[in-house]
Every structure is written in structure tokens, then in C-alpha cells.
Amino acid sequence: MKLTKYNKYKNTNIHWLGDIPQHWEVKRAKDISKIFVPQRDKPQLIETNEIPWVTSDLLKNSVLNLEKVKYFIDIKEVKIKGIRTVPKKSVLATCIGEFSLTAINLIPVVINQQIQAFTSFKKMNEYFFNYLIQSEKYKNYFDRISTATTLKYLNKEKFELTLTLIPPLPEQTAIANYLDQKTAQIDKKVDLLTQKIEKYKELKKSLINQTVCRGLDKNVKLKPSGIDWIGDIPEHWEVKRLKDIGFLYSGLSGKSAKDFNQENNINNRDFITFVNIANNQYIKKDNFGNVVILENDNQNQVKKNDLFFLMSSESYADIGKSSLLLEDIENTYLNSFCKGFRVTNKLIKPIFLNYLMSASSFRDNLIVQGKGFTRINLKIEKINDFQFVIPPLKEQTAIAQYLDEKTNKIDQITTNLSQQIEALKELRKTLINEVVTGQLKIYNG
Description:
Layout: E1 2-4, E2 9-11, E3 19-21, E4 25-28, H1 29-32, E5 34-36, E6 45-46, E7 51-54, E8 62-63, E9 72-73, H2 75-81, E10 91-94, E11 102-104, E12 110-111, E13 115-119, H3 126-133, H4 136-145, E14 147-148, E15 152-153, H5 156-160, E16 163-166, H6 169-214, E17 222-224, E18 232-234, E19 238-241, E20 246-250, E21 268-272, H7 274-279, E22 288-292, E23 307-310, E24 312-313, E25 322-324, E26 332-334, E27 338-343, H8 350-358, H9 360-367, E28 376-377, H10 380-384, E29 387-390, H11 393-436, E30 441-443
Parallel strand pairs: 7-12, 8-11, 21-26
Antiparallel strand pairs: 1-30, 2-3, 4-16, 5-13, 6-9, 7-9, 10-11, 10-13, 14-15, 17-18, 19-29, 20-27, 21-22, 23-25, 23-27, 24-28
């Protein structure tokens, strides 16, 4: 099958819809379907496999992914309390946040308040309709008409009045089948590339772990480190605590929200953000925030070769993450959720220490020290007393240079793979948008 233009188009006189094929119709959603709204009362949730309780994170532009369902509804409760289930082959759509998240359910389900469902279609292929409302044209429309609160919201009435493109039913089916085939091919390529990225990430993790704990000499004699989770180390290496080689200092303190990201304030100064540390092995100068620092403020400035730790986070994935500043910068400060570490021992290379602290064996044992519920926090003494292994200075330099070379190559590969994934995702979006809105026609050529 190939794509071409339709022979004739007509003007809908609706700005966001534009021109459509001459033989297509435009109707309101409520004229071709019913809108199913979930009840307000949350049912009792169980973990046994009965009727799925569907949340918006299970919707992903396709058939509903029930493998990730966490909770179910007791079928007895459904009957006794009269809980309504969404009938099969309904189109589920998020009504809060990202409106392009849609899916079709192939079994009856119960939906939560973040979802509304289109059911009981008249002369409408539900798979075509599913692709239609996840297209960029409809996503942008939903964004414009949504009510802006903390999250964008679409109520039932706005969904009902949504203007829907209606090709002849056989054409809808042909479009849906074509997009099923093409998007499945794209999704498979994306999955394969994603798996490759994960393998390279595991390779990078393994490479760092092995090198910072054993060094570059594969034949070196080993000795017990005295630390269970480290195991044996080269016999000429030492075990030290962080506080034996330098000192920790605090990030910004006493600042309120109004002090950050002001425009054109002469007292603005750069500060290293949480995300800059979380996402980078080395701090990036083009990714700073700004904060108002007055002349009498008593704040710690960062220096070249300072190491930074995330001391507070909403997840264990980020807690204790480290990043190193490799450049000289002036009048720059540190996020308040972080601590800086300045090496004072001349026999320690900060660049080696950063690799050491990013190794998963060290990260895993640092993470378990984190405490908290809504936020995970590390205490300063846990960082100070943290034990690590250290080779001679010359060996530290060689290890850091080796890891820079190897990890840079891996990072380049994963960046390339990520770019391919983004290009495929963009192709998927463009393909759906052009075919379901009538910009291009499917034909056997």
C-alpha cells in the first residue's frame, strides 16, 4: 500500500480541522458515540485477577496493556454495588494531562476518574476513532479547549462536542488496518533499539564496576578489602572513608521561591541544579539555573574539581547520585538539596572518585542509607563515613582516562540510538496525523 493525495478536498470552515476529503463528513462525538464517565466513589481494590482497575498509565496509543494492571475489582462488589464496567471495544482516553494517551479495551474494565470512554459507536470503526483522537491535530485541539488547573482537564461536555471526522466505514477500516500494520512495524523497531540501549547501559555499568574495584591489571594479586559488599581488591590498594580525604559543604540555604529564575536582576548568579547533577557524569555549564545572591549572603561557592551529591530526592533512583565539576567557574552556587565535596588530599583524583561513587556497587550501598517517605534523604554522616577503595595516584589517573574513553564511546552509541528512536516516534506521529485527518490517502499501488 502507498500514500497519495485525495482527488478533491472541501473546506470545513473550522480553523483547526482545515480542508478534508470531499466525501468525508464532520459530526460531533456525541452523535456517533456515548461518553462513559466513571463513578466518583472508588471501589475496593484487590490483587486477585478479576475485573481490571484501569488507570491512565496503562493507556499508550493502542490496545490496553493489561500486563501492567496492579489492582482489580471483586466481581461480587461490581454486582452488589452496581459498579459500571466499560464495555468491550470502547476507546479509553485520558481526560487529565496528556490527552493523546488512548487505548481500546478488549475485555470489560473499570476506569478511574482520569479516564473517559467512548462507547456504543454508530457507523464508526473504534480503531479508526482511536487513531483519530491520538493524532497531533486532535491532541493540540484538546490542549486548547481544556480547563487549566494544576493539570489540564477535559469534562464530558467538551468531549461530546468534539468535532469528529467521518470517512465512509470501509475507508475507516482500511485506514485503521494500515496504521495497525505500520505502527506495529515502527513500535517493533523502537523496542529493539530500546533493548540495545539497555544492553549498552548495562555494559557501561559493568565496565565501571569492574574497573574501579579491580583496576586495569587483570593479573594483579588480590586481598580482602574487609568490606562485604566490595570483596577482594588489589593488594596495594587502600580502604578510606570520605571524611579522611576532604570535606562536605552545604548548598544554598535561606532562599525562597521568589529568589530563583528572576529576569534581569543584577544580583542573579548561576547555581548548579538538581537535574544537572542527576543526569550528568560531569556538570554541564550550559544547564545552570539562576538565583539572587545579595552582597551579605553567606553562601558556599563551588570550585573546579568539586564533587556534588544529591542528598534529597523523591526516588531512590537519584539519591546519592554524584557529578563532578571539571571547569573553573566564578560566582556559582549549589542546589539546596545537594552537598558539595572538596578533596583536600593531594593523593586523590576527584575524577577517579566520581567514577567510584557512580559505580552501582557503591550506589546500591549508599541508597540503602536513604530514609523517608515523600522524600528520600541522606544524612551527612552517612556520606562522611562511607568507605571506598583507592589505588595509587598514577593508577587513579589511568583508570579515569580509560573509563572516559570507553564510556564516551558507549554514550555516543546510546545517543545515536536515542536519536533513531525519536525519529521513529516522530514518523509514527506524522503518519497517524496525515492519514486519519485525510491529508493522505491509502491506495494499492
